[in-house]
Specification:
The chain is of the alpha+beta class. It has a domain of about 375 residues: Creatine Kinase, Chain A, domain 2, CATH 3.30.590. The chain is about 45% helix and about 10% strand. It is built from 17 helices and 14 strands. The strands form 4 sheets. Strands 1, 2, 3, 4, 5, 11 and 12 form a 7-stranded antiparallel β-sheet that branches. A 3-stranded antiparallel β-sheet has the order 6-8-7, covered by helices on one side. Helix 12 packs antiparallel against helix 13. The chain is globular, with a radius of gyration of 23 Å. The relative contact order is 0.16.
């Protein structure tokens, strides 16, 4: 009897269902630091000509005033989303005064912590809340860590496609609602992602080096490449290693991905459970707010994860409220490094592979994860980000020890029919060609982005800051050489102005005081989650 993946692919290959494959949605969120022409972190405010960081849906900031975030609309074809991302970059460059975008995940040589500016969103209650949240992050984790940049890839399947897949799922009771079935299938996708996401780190990790001052004197096991550069010789993604997002408080959060209610309970508990070191800080200093609360998490999004189940939220709604009320709508993949060899930070070829990979995770069988397997999944991921290109590196697949390259090739072989079906639906061979590129990387580690970055750094005097600045300038020149049309520019200018007007209106019409607003916000989730 055919396995579940084969059954599902056969079902979706049917002419009456195949078009559903093209109706899912894709979107990209791209983070990038603004730096001056010497590669120093920009100390200037978020450019007003880019609009309001609070209300512009496509151009905003992340942690720092200097950390831009570009957000594409959700599109059926990722190529359409990437074209919009390209336009956003080109518009942004018309408004940057003697600044460029740092096209790497690991930051430039940073100033003292006190000189890293926290993002500001105006004086409205919600804008102030976003700023206070970031103040809390600075107290909890330091500002340096928050300057790391990445690519977030948003992915969904069309809701009607889930209905088709349910036909092959004999384990589902008739009483299970459409919403709950879809949510559990996304959670199953996430389980598979945690099993196999090490593969993304090998294929697309592009941060084997870091500026020396990033460590701020912390102990580490990196090797010295030069006075200003540290590295791991076989590393793929220092961004996703324990050098990146570290948190003693979060170490005890163990969200379960075996069903949605348990995941919601885990995050709700973390948002409501006090953490003594944060209690010692308090929420205010000298009458000014410094964090939203003193719990393990200020808000759900503070939990650092390589993938999240998501639902578009309503105004004033919190993420777990949306998930509890309406279920999972899409997943957000958060582990992708910036591609320093592409001016957008991500290529269409990589995106085509992500689509194959995520469809595979959704269609493949996904058993419940045990605690032991969860530990194994984390160990495989961490081994890959630190030693992924080491010859003969062994990972653990259940009770089997297997070489990374061998297991990766086995997974690509398993994914090949998925790529073929996506190409059949879309026309062309882009998915198959991306698969061939990834197969070549598995056969030769020197073809990986992390190996290429290391070679380029070594060719630039063993200096990561020098190479990254030169590469970022080249990418800036490439983007600025392709100016937008007058009509495109006018559309962006109008969008920016509309966002500024929206922020002004919000600030002018709000009522009440901020303390009352925070109290209501903190109480809005914890007693009202139905799981």
């Amino acid at each position: 009897m055919a396995d579940l993946l084969t059954q599902r692919l056969k079902l979706l290959a049917d002419a009456q269902h195949r078009d559903l494959l093209g109706k899912g949605l894709r979107g990209v969120e791209r983070e990038t630091l603004r730096v001056d022409l010497q590669g120093h972190l920009a100390q200037t405010p978020h450019p007003a000509a880019l609009g309001s960081a609070l209300t512009n849906e496509q151009i905003t900031t992340d942690y720092s005033e200097s950390l831009l975030e570009f957000i594409t609309p959700a599109e059926n074809d990722i190529a359409t989303a990437l074209r919009r991302l390209d336009e956003i970059h080109r518009f942004a460059y018309t408004k940057l005064d003697k600044e460029i975008l740092w096209n790497f995940s690991m930051p430039c040589v940073l100033p003292d912590e006190t000189d890293i500016p926290i993002a500001w969103y105006g004086t409205s209650h919600i804008g102030t809340l976003k700023h206070v949240y970031r103040r809390g992050l600075a107290l909890r984790y330091g500002k340096t860590m928050q300057c790391i940049a990445g690519i977030h890839y948003n992915f969904s399947l069309h809701e009607d496609l889930w209905d088709v897949l349910r036909q092959t799922d004999g384990s589902v009771e008739a009483s299970v609602s459409r919403r709950d079935y879809q949510s559990e299938r996304y959670i199953a996708l996430i389980r598979n992602f945690r099993r196999y996401s090490w593969l993304l780190m090998y294929l697309f990790g592009a941060s084997p080096v870091v500026a020396s001052n990033f460590l701020r004197g912390r102990p580490h096991q990196l090797q010295t490449l030069s006075e200003d550069t540290l590295y791991l010789p076989y590393g793929t993604s220092l961004r996703m290693s324990d050098l990146g997002y570290q948190s003693n408080a979060q170490a005890n959060i163990t969200p379960h991905y075996n069903n949605l209610p348990s995941y919601i309970r885990s995050l709700s508990q973390a948002v409501s459970e006090p953490y003594p070191p944060y209690e010692a800080i308090g929420t205010k200093r000298d009458g000014e707010w410094v964090q939203i609360n003193t719990n393990i998490l200020q808000i759900e999004n503070e939990f650092y994860s390589a993938i999240r189940p998501k639902r578009v939220i309503y105004s004033g709604e919190r993420p777990v409220q949306a998930l509890s009320a309406r279920g999972v709508q899409y997943v957000e993949v958060r582990c992708m490094d910036i591609d320093p060899f592409n001016p957008l930070g991500i290529s269409l070829e990589a995106s085509r592979f992500l689509d194959v990979f995520l469809h595979f995770l959704a269609l493949e069988e996904s058993d419940i994860t045990t605690g032991e397997e969860g530990d194994q999944n984390r160990a495989n991921f961490m081994a890959t980000v630190k030693q992924g290109r080491q010859p003969g590196l062994q990972l653990h697949n259940g009770e089997r020890s297997v070489g990374l390259q061998q297991w990766g090739l086995e997974l690509l072989e398993r994914m090949a029919p998925v790529a073929a079906l996506l190409d059949q639906q879309a026309g062309g061979d882009e998915h198959a060609r991306s698969m061939a590129t990834q197969r070549a990387k598995l056969n030769d580690a020197d073809l990986t982005p992390s190996a290429r970055v290391l070679r380029e750094v070594q060719a630039n005097g063993n200096s990561f800051p020098a190479f990254a600045l030169r590469q970022s300038q080249l990418q800036a020149d490439e983007l600025m050489a392709r100016p937008l049309s007058a009509e495109q520019t006018a559309d962006f200018v109008a969008m920016a102005q509309a966002s500024l007007d929206a922020q002004t209106s919000m600030e002018r019409t709000q009522t009440g005081d901020f303390d009352t607003f925070v109290a209501a916000y903190r109480a809005s989730t914890l007693g009202n989650i139905s799981v």
